[in-house]
Specification:
Layout: H1 2-19, H2 28-40, H3 45-55, H4 60-63, H5 66-69, H6 76-81, H7 92-96, H8 111-123, H9 129-146, E1 164-167, E2 170-173, H10 174-184, H11 190-197, H12 202-209, H13 213-230, E3 234-235, H14 237-266
Parallel strand pairs: 1-3
Antiparallel strand pairs: 1-2
Helix pairs in contact: 2-9, 2-10, 2-11, 2-14, 3-14, 8-9, 9-14
Amino acid sequence: MLQKIGNLLISASSVILLFTSNNVFAWGQNGHRIVAQVANSHLTPATVRALAPLLEGESLPQIATWADEMRSAPGEFWQEKSSRWHYINADAATLNNPPSHHSSKESVSNILDALLFNIAVLKDTNSSIDAKRFSLRFVVHLVGDSHQPFHAGRKGDRGGNNISVIFFGQDTNLHSLWDSKLIENENLSYTEFADFINTDNKLLIAKYLHSSPVEWLQESHNIANSIYNKHETKISYQYIYKNMPIIKTRLQQSGIRLAGLLNLIYDNSALPLVKALKMPANIN
C-alpha cells in the first residue's frame, strides 16, 4: 500500500518541489540516495533478509526520498504534522536533555522524537507490517536528515532557509545550498558519489558507530553554527573547496550509521563498533 501511494504521488511531488520557495528538505533526492547506497554496502546478510518483506521489492535508495514525496499527500498528518519530523530547533538544552522515552506518533515534535519513535516501532515485535514499513521509510530518511547541518539550525532563520546567498550568480538560500546545490555541483550520479565516499576503514567505521541520534544532531548543530559565524553569502570555488569535504563526511557518516542502526535492530550477531551502532541503553 505504501509503495502504491508513493508511486502515485512522486510525479506531483517532484513538480511541487521545483516551485516551492520554502523548501526544508534535507540533502535533496540525490543526497538521500547517496546515504542509502552507502548503507547498502554495510548491511549484514541477516539484516538484508529481514528488510526484504518491508521493502516490498524496492531498495534502500528507492525508499530514501519517500518521506519527502509524501509531504504533498492529503491528510492531517502529512499536511500539518509531518514537516516537524524532519528537523529540530537545536540548542544546548534540547540536545543535552533528550527524551527518556519513545514518543507516540501523535506527540512527536521534532526529528529526535521521530527517530526514537520509529526505531521503537521497528524493534517492537508487536508492530504491524504496515507500521514497520512506514517506520523503515522514515528511519532511512531521517538518519540522512539528522546529518544535514541545517536540520539542527536556528529557528529564527528556519534552518538557513531565510538566509539568502548567491551561488555562481544565482539567488538561493543557505539551506538549499547545503541540501542539494553543492552536491549536484559534483555532477555525479548517486551511485558514483556513494562509491567515491564509501570506506572500509575499520577505525573510522568504529568511530562513526560509537554514536547516537542525539550526537548526530549535536554534530550538525555545531557545523551549522560554524557556517553561520562565517557569514559567507557569495558562493564560488573557494567555498566549495572548503565545505565539500564536510558534506562528503556527513553523507559517509550517515550511510554507515544507518547501516549500523539497521544491523543493531535486525542482526543479533552484528558486533557493535564493527557492523552495529553502540548506543545508550534507553535506545537499545
